[in-house]
Amino acid sequence: MPKENQLIKFTKRGIYCPQGKFYLDPWYPVEYAIISHGHADHARRGMKRYLCTDDSKPILKHRLGADIKIESIPYNKILNINGVNVSFHPAGHVIGSAQIKLEHKGYVVVFSGDYKTQPDFITTPFEPIKCHTFITESTFGLPIYHWKKEEELQSQLQSWVKANQSNGRTSVFLGYSLGKAQRLMSLLDSCDDIYVHRAIHNLNLAISESGLKLPQAKLWSADLNKKTLQNKIIIAPPALLGSRMLKRVPNSATAICSGWMQIRGNRRWQAVDAGFVVSDHADWNGLISAVKATEAEQVYVTHGSQAVFSKYLNEIGIKANELKTEYGDEALAKAEKEDVENKKIV
Amino acid sequence: MKQFSDLISAVELTNKTNAKIEALADYFRTAPDKDKLWLIALFTGKRPSRPVKTTLMKEWCMELTELPEWLFLESYSTVGDLGETLALLLPNPTHKLDLSLNEWMTELKVLKTKTDEEKKAFVLEAWSGLDQQERLIFNKLIGGSFRIGVSKKTLVNALAKLTGIDTNRLMHSITGHWDVDSISFEELINGTHINYDNSKPYPFCLAYALEKQLHELGEAEDWFVEQKWDGIRGQIVKRNNEIYIWSRGEELVTKQFPELVGAISNFQDDFVIDGEILAMKDNDVLLFNDLQKRLNRKNVTKKLLEEVPIGFYAYDLLELNGDDLRDYPFKERRKHLEQIFSSTALPEDVKLSFLVNFEEWEDLYAIRNNSRAINSEGLMLKQKKSPYHTGRKKGDWWKWKVDPLTIDAVMIYAQKGSGRRSSKYTDYTFAVKKDNALVTVAKAYSGLTDKEITEISQWVNKNAIEKFGPVRTVKPELVFEIAFEGIALSNRHKSGVALRFPRIARWRRDKPVDEIDTIETVKALILSC
């Protein structure tokens, strides 16, 4: 087993495996890209070949085009690429999301992509993988971030819907098309009819066609009778905040669903009626327990609170360094906004 | 506390004033009497003094969570509010405490006299028995301020909606002298403890910005012209030996300006005077920035009284010895006002606003341009025949402000705001060129849209040089046009100049950094105005 990790290199195009001759979630076009999940900051256009999980495949094809050259394998199955054993392991982030494990001559690197350690009702739960080098995200890498249990969250969201209904109001939830939308559908499933924005609807269709079962949701189209929507639930991408389409819904209450809503300043910044703490990422304890569970001797910290989280890891005796990447919530929000504006929709 | 906590959640989330008023009115309809009184007390600054030091609360939280101090501080600078930071860091509650607002406040009053050990036991017990939102409120009850977007005015509007009582009267009632223990809610809002007949103000007469040429206003001789002093508009009410000062925001600010009360008590007549509250020293009007140091203070210290003395310029007379003069022509009202000021041994701090001497409209241009030198915002033009209108009315009064001065400067530091702005970098420091380096010229917080602030915040996140702490040094790259009302030489500032009321006029995305102003061109503005 090599003493030092020779398996990965950090390049301008992204994280590269020289032995395997492939990149992990590269941000510039390359020959061969292994993709952790379907979000726009991780799965980008222009790669000659893609490899992802079976569950991510319909999402990538939907987002990046049916003509992309793409292969997929199920979770936990090992594929040998130029002598490197590559496998995907559930990351609990969004449907199809995976940590990517590389193994070569006994040396193991795990790239987390984005992950969430707490189980929800819809994604395959996160599984910690032992490794020598762990590359972790740090979106919510501060001890102020603690998520509620899924059941608690569910009753919180559902009572908000009920309160709105008692005032004759339609409940509008804003969350990313991939991940947050399906998660909200699962949380609100038993509540009332759910209508989703076309971006979400099309993605749902793509996911369902590949055989995955999603909670029921109807298309929210502009020509729906206004009465139909009264007291119901609408789920839309955050890019729609302030849009004409949303303003046309009579008597509605709007909630933003995001981990950032943990902080009052963030809740108050947006002119909405409610902010719910619903995140696809690990909270502080989640990040720490995930890192510890890998037993990695070297940790690289990517997008989010890199500086804080890596400093803290070093203080508790885990060797960690910051790693600059092009991933992150802002890149994702920007991409989704452009998609919605161009009607090219996720 | 649940009820109070729900109220806070409801009012802090919405930015619709009506929704806030509705939530408050709902609380007043259903909460226990004492809780209602406490709510009013807390939102009008009648908070008991802090029983536990913040440093101790921080220490106990770090002990409980086993977090290093730097990480605590990093969390604090992300959240922007200490009470909230504590609430978010602490472990989940282990049990449920259910006390009313009044019970908590009563406990906190007693706590002040206890030892630190006893205080610690009490606070830790509370923390472990309250959920996140209740814990935040508990921390806020101990100290700090409730910045949740409920002004006294919103509170008063909610009470008015509930009771139908006149808002100014309610404002006087709740800001008057009262104490939770010795009054009932009914008594408070009915004002049994005040005499409203003595304090009742009039609605202010407001002017529009001049939108035509001067000669289109008619004959110059039909108009009075005054300086438009840059302070806060105020109404001084003196009736039956009682004195009240109302601000234009319909707040009673009497206690903030004790020197004005002292000066006014020298006058013989009863009256209601409209005028401008100003920071004034040795007959000179000071900067609005100076005046700000005196605003919204619970206690006015002796030091502050000396540093920033307050004066008043009287513009108009609305009532004299019980007679309402508002329908008199301004010329008449002015005559009576002059009489009041001539018949008294005049105190220094309260002055008659002087009329600008001019014959032709053209004379006013030079006078207006000189306004800046005496810390005035420009000129006010008032038709001599005009009554004292209610509210804003076009035609009789015009404000004619000087155009602001502007420079192009580059952002060099960014800092997060507070309250609603705590999640974004909203407070910036700007620099201009000096030789081959940069020198700070101004700090500015206002003038950008939320959208621009969001964009700049993201840029700061990416381009900051430091990684820790509340202030970020950024690459000098973003150029802004800074507008300000005046400029003076100053020894206190490294740049050698002080700008008056700087704010961001616009973001100059089109301008590269090497085209920003130099300190020489900035200084040249001093000579030109």
Question: In brief, what are we looking at here?
Answer:
Chain A has 346 residues and is an alpha/beta fold. Chain A is built from 10 helices and 19 strands.
Could you describe the 3D structure shown?
Chain B: Its EC number is 6.5.1.1. Chain B: This is DNA ligase (ATP). The complex is a heterodimer of chains A (346) and B (529). Chain A has 346 residues and is of the alpha/beta class. Chain A folds into 2 domains: 9-144 and 280-328 and 337-341, Ribonuclease Z/Hydroxyacylglutathione hydrolase-like (Metallo-beta-lactamase, Chain A, 4-Layer Sandwich), CATH 3.60.15; 150-276, Rossmann fold, CATH 3.40.50. Chain A is built from 10 helices and 19 strands. Chain A has helices spanning 57-64, 150-166, 180-188, 198-209, 226-229, 244-247, 264-269, 284-294, 306-315, 329-341, and strands at 9-10, 15-17, 22-24, 32-34, 49-53, 70-73, 79-81, 84-90, 98-104, 107-111, 133-138, 170-174, 194-196, 218-219, 233-236, 252-257, 274-276, 298-304, 320-322. In chain A, the strands form 3 sheets. Chain A has a 7-stranded mixed sheet, covered by helices on one side. In chain A, strand 7 and strand 8 (84-90) form a beta hairpin. In chain A, helix 1 crosses helix 4. Chain A is globular, with a radius of gyration of 20 Å. The N and C termini of chain A lie far apart (43 Å). The mean pLDDT of chain A is 93. With 529 residues, chain B is an alpha+beta fold. Chain B folds into 3 domains: 2-142, DNA ligase i, domain 1 (Orthogonal Bundle), CATH 1.10.3260.10; 205-401, DNA ligase/mRNA capping enzyme (D-amino Acid Aminotransferase, Chain A, domain 1, 2-Layer Sandwich); 405-528, Beta Barrel (OB fold (Dihydrolipoamide Acetyltransferase, E2P)), CATH 2.40.50. Chain B is built from 20 helices and 21 strands. In chain B, the strands form 5 sheets. In chain B, strands 4, 5, 6, 7, 8, 9 and 10 form a 7-stranded mixed sheet that branches. In chain B, helix 2 crosses helix 10 (152-163), helix 5 (69-79) crosses helix 6 (82-89) and helix 6 runs antiparallel to helix 9 (132-142). Chain B starts with a helix and ends with a helix.
